[in-house]
Amino acid sequence: MKFVKWTFAAVWLFIGAACQDSEVDPNGPVTLTNSDFRTDTDGWVAEVTDYSTAQESIIEFQSGLKALPAPLDATKKSFMTSGHNRSDDLFMFLKKKVTGLKPNQTYLIDFEIELASQYGTNSVGIGGSPGGSVYLKAGVSATEPKKVKEGDDYRLNIDKGNQMEGSAAVPVLGNIGAGDDVTQYKLIQRTTSEPIMAKTNDAGELWLLVGTDSGFEGLTTLYYNKIKAVAELK
User: CB of 109 within 8 A of CB of 228?
Assistant: First the structure.
């Protein structure tokens, strides 16, 4: 009887360990991530780019696990990003590595994103609208998205387009406008209009990226509530 109990316990320990692994089932369709940030950042890391070295101390970039803002449910956590767009081109983004996919294979990936925004779609601000001129993007890359220095500027090492223009790897999902005349935080949803095509590297890895490309020359503070990405073999 003791042997049976210990065997049963060992099986459950094995299952528990497998569930905690970051790898996913290599057969599509697969959920690459389904993050709700209730307890932690779930492997997502925040970065900022598209500004000059002279502006580094004045962009006021902040990020981290924070409670949803009022009047939303403050008992629930979210991933906050905040920055002052001194360059008229600030790009704040989250990235996450996904493993366990089939090596050197092409996948089609769809995103569903929910975030809290307080910016009116028809609002007016310096350089552009705080809601209508800040563009939400999502993308996939086999290489890690990183901030790189080019002369006196910091840029992203993969093509994301610029502001309202996206790229094949990082398309625009819409802006962060929460509706006309909105002045307090509310949850908004954005999804990919068509799947993003990406090929895994030799190790069966992909990097996910979600961020905002700003044409508004002011402070933007957003709270990511949910990020889901699903992939299917092409």
Answer: no
Q: Let me know the angle formed at the C-alpha of 193 by 85 and 138, rounded to the nearest 5 degrees.
A: 35
Ramachandran sector of residue 130 (left: φ over 0; alpha: ψ -120 to 50; beta: rest): alpha
Task: Identify whether 71 is preceded by a cis peptide bond (ω within 30 of 0).
Answer: yes
- What residue ranges define each of the domains in the chain, with the CATH number in brackets? 26-233 (2.60.120.260)
116/19 Cα distance (integer angstroms): 29
Asked whether residue 33 carries a pLDDT value surpassing 60, the answer given is yes
What pTM did the predictor assign? 0.87
How far the first Cα of the chain sits from its last, in Å, is 49
**Across 99-194, where does the E strand assignment appear?**
106-117, 134-141, 147-150, 153-156, 172-175, 186-191
